Amino acid sequence: MRLTVLTPGSRMPRWVDEAVNEYRKRLPPELKLELRDLPLGGRGRDSNPMRAMAEEAKRIRDAMPARDRLVVLDVAGKAFTTEQLAGQLESWQMSGDNYSLVIGGPDGVDPSLLEQAQLRWSLSPLTLPHPLVRVVLVEQLYRAWTINAGHPYHRS
Q1: Exposed end of the chain (fewer CB within 10 Å): N or C?
Q2: 155 lies in some domain
Q3: What is the pLDDT of residue 151?
Q4: Domain that holds residue 34
């Protein structure tokens, strides 16, 4: 199974790339994780945030691999415990599908993407900075996999 993380945004600080890559390399080959950074929608002094989000949504759709199921990270989405996330990950793996996970841009996710999503997932009710979201997302996916694999990383 392949998970593709799609996010509008600029280059991340080195500590983010190092943390994300550390968890990615720990994942088994049958759980491939890809990250794709996409250009932000146009923003400026007189810009319209809705137009910028619509641009980002188009770029996300264009970058999303064909036939992927869409999961959007959304503060108002479904919250999982780590154990529930492990069950969700197992369900995704058993489905035979690939999934695209979307992290929104600075103004959030375009409503059309939220409507299109098969799942809206909340990492936290807190507003988190984008660099931290990447690290938390990848670490939690790794942790969920370790639970399913019986690996000792997760100790509750």
Answers
A1: C
A2: no
A3: 84
A4: 2-149
